[in-house]
Amino acid sequence: MTARPVPDTDPALLEEILAGLAASAAPLADTDRLARARAVRAVADALDAASADLVEVAARETWLPLPRLTGEVGRTSGQLRMFAGGLEEGSYLDVIIDPADPGATPVPRPDLRRVQVPLGPVLVFAGSNFPFAFSVAGGDTASALAAGCPVVVKAHPGHPETSVRTAEVVRRAWEGAGMPAGSFALVLGEQVGVDALRDPRITAAGFTGSLHGGTALYRIAAQRDAPIPFYAEMGSLNPTFVTAGAIAARGDEIAAGFVTSFTLGVGQFCTKPGLLFLPRGHGLDAALERAVAAAAPGRMLHERIRTGHDAVRAQLAALPGMRVAAAVDSDPDAGGPAGATLLATDLATLLAEQDTVLPECFGPTSVVVEYDGMDDVLVAARAFGASLTATVHAEPDEIELVRPLVRELRDQAGRIVWNGWPTGVAVSWAMHHGGPWPATSSPLHTSVGMTAIRRFLRPVTYQDVPAALLDDVLQDANPAGIPRRLGGRLSTGDLSRS
Amino acid sequence: MTARPVPDTDPALLEEILAGLAASAAPLADTDRLARARAVRAVADALDAASADLVEVAARETWLPLPRLTGEVGRTSGQLRMFAGGLEEGSYLDVIIDPADPGATPVPRPDLRRVQVPLGPVLVFAGSNFPFAFSVAGGDTASALAAGCPVVVKAHPGHPETSVRTAEVVRRAWEGAGMPAGSFALVLGEQVGVDALRDPRITAAGFTGSLHGGTALYRIAAQRDAPIPFYAEMGSLNPTFVTAGAIAARGDEIAAGFVTSFTLGVGQFCTKPGLLFLPRGHGLDAALERAVAAAAPGRMLHERIRTGHDAVRAQLAALPGMRVAAAVDSDPDAGGPAGATLLATDLATLLAEQDTVLPECFGPTSVVVEYDGMDDVLVAARAFGASLTATVHAEPDEIELVRPLVRELRDQAGRIVWNGWPTGVAVSWAMHHGGPWPATSSPLHTSVGMTAIRRFLRPVTYQDVPAALLDDVLQDANPAGIPRRLGGRLSTGDLSRS
């Protein structure tokens, strides 16, 4: 690990940071959403401007290649700009106005106006595998700041210096754009993160990381005197199901695409396809072997992650009924490149060993599983589908064959991919990067895409409150022209003229 | 307590019910939303038709007066019809479509179509104080069934026979309208409820009741191998703040309105105003005494609740600096009528004894608190505002005086009432019946109003999935004409023509 040691945040500084967060919550919540949009764009611009410097530090700390890191900074600033656009559009406020109805039975209905307001200070536990897009300036931070919540990020120990440098860029741009001092901060240290999570001034938390870590922190949040929402994005097996027809039509392409996807970023993506279900006698062994042999070994994020990967891979390979279908040698030094490994088994073995197989093997290892028919596939979907994503490869004449599978996956996964690969998560309104436990701790929410902002907002309803005390978005005239729900119908209109 | 003993559900029956719930989850989720709307209306009609019978049983079990119970059945069926209307309107599906963008950078964007799907089997812990509107056929059940989730209700022990009879009406109407057998059930028994909550087939739970009970169950849900969302609506102090101007303009009316509100339903409403903040030297003592004297004593829900109320009232009255401002004698028999009690103190005393005072006194007792200026009021709002509601009484020329108070309450309460009373919760789109802990366990959600359905839905995104495998609401043509978000903009249009 080449990360230089950065000392943990000391208790006095943590207290100062938490006090600053609490003190800035109301001023930040009171900033105009358009001013906040400008500040979010300023952070995006500042990250782009600092990209070369930040990437250099991150490349040293994480061993990720420069082009990937450079692209990731662009993804991070693009994500911030998406939230800025969402602030400008205004529908995230989810304004609902039910005008008074003096004739309602059994009692007259008052005037009710509902809007979303910021939840309060948010704690973000940064992830390791995207040192920009899921770290200090990543989606959790971007959505919480956009919502109007102060943010303290707990840096991931895998890239402390990158975290410190990024935080400084964010803080300067954010405060420089007029946002309250103290409304964005960074802390370092595992115990510091836990202490912050237990602090009553923190009102919600986001997390990207392992099932083990996410579960432990989720339970700490639930055991507080006043529990808070804890949004954890955790492990995922991302099963992929391939039909006989798809293999007949484009077997080699599927084999190559699969290996590219599970080795992308040296297998360190939460959407890595960890299980490939193929019909027995699929005939893709040679194509898969060729694809694995062609996959260039890469250095993993840091030594600890490489060591963890090797241990889980060995555990999987030792299972009865499991064989190594293809493998590229890894550098025995944990700091050297790791090669791809493809294991193979059949569904019966996998089900018998479910407890052992279920852990995600974070790294360039995946498992091919042979099935005997669509009934098997449905069993597999039920057993392994609770994931961020599930993928189906099938041909146009197989729609009816796979209809029950797609239906079953709807009950399990957050995103269903057709004839593609789950890696690469588009940042847009319609993205859902979530899913039932163990994919996330909160099946209702996404950590990627515009609707991620909903995690950090809560409703308030004003009953018969005079217009002089209401925000402009709650006025009859709708001067900002934002989409609202009036009397149960969506509208961008002026209530006073309807 | 006049409730006849009804035996707890035995383990074999609980297993049968949970298996039935799990088996019916997919068929129920696959019902057409318009068919589900018809079934929800059928349940409403059946409740109205059975109203006289149900009310008779409830009056015996809960001691609530017949007119109140009859009105509550109407509220319950009206609530069901609101959800039916919401299903028909269709925006609850929150459909978001981002068409493919082959020119997107850094990578082409696939076609993404996002929709809300039912979460799965829901466990509802019924409340005691509304034996219809927050019980077997109440808001939790109505919103979960409307969402397409099977429901098992854990009956409140305060009205077991009412629960059994109501459940039978609901089940017959629901299944009679074509909904899957086994998708609605009732269980009885405290341990049975806990066992159900721990069962992996349950995917979410709703609760109405005390802070103590809600917290315990919330933590059980968080400790499951796979934790689930637990939506608890719990205690609430519902502070009311009155300015000097409001007293000068309509002091007697405020005194009378306050006493009517805190004694409504013998003080057994979650929105009962439990704290009335008046300026020192308010001069309303006589008016409050008259109003309390005029409030007719009433029997409480059951003996246990009456005993609990009397104990908390005694605890409050014994605090240093607390005096009894007005009281009506209660029948010493816990089955007899309870009279109203108004205690009085000042803010300093209340803050010094905050831990003792904070518990909700469930019943016809409230506390007048004298304050010395608007700074005091802001301190009070921060200390006691985290409630379902907060109320402000002020005059038109005091808007600037109370602006900071209304702003502070926005950060604390779920609903802000102006020159009215918090009791009486309108059932509509814009209602928010929620708030930060301890008002609820989930600050993002409401248990009353149309948006309560969101608690039981989760998103799924389809990536490049063929139209033949997508629901009609995700088709380009939008045959149902429901409101959707297309490319980031709300629309009821046809994507194929845009």
TrEMBL record, chains A, B:
Keywords: Oxidoreductase. SUPFAM superfamilies: ALDH-like (SSF53720). The keyword Oxidoreductase applies. GO terms for molecular function: oxidoreductase activity, acting on the aldehyde or oxo group of donors, NAD or NADP as acceptor. This is NADP-dependent aldehyde dehydrogenase. Pfam families: Aldedh. Signal peptide: none annotated. Transmembrane segments: none annotated. Gene3D superfamilies: Aldehyde Dehydrogenase, Chain A, domain 1 (3.40.605.10), Aldehyde Dehydrogenase, Chain A, domain 2 (3.40.309.10). The keyword Lyase does not apply. It comes from Blastococcus haudaquaticus. Residues 15-434 form the Aldehyde dehydrogenase domain.
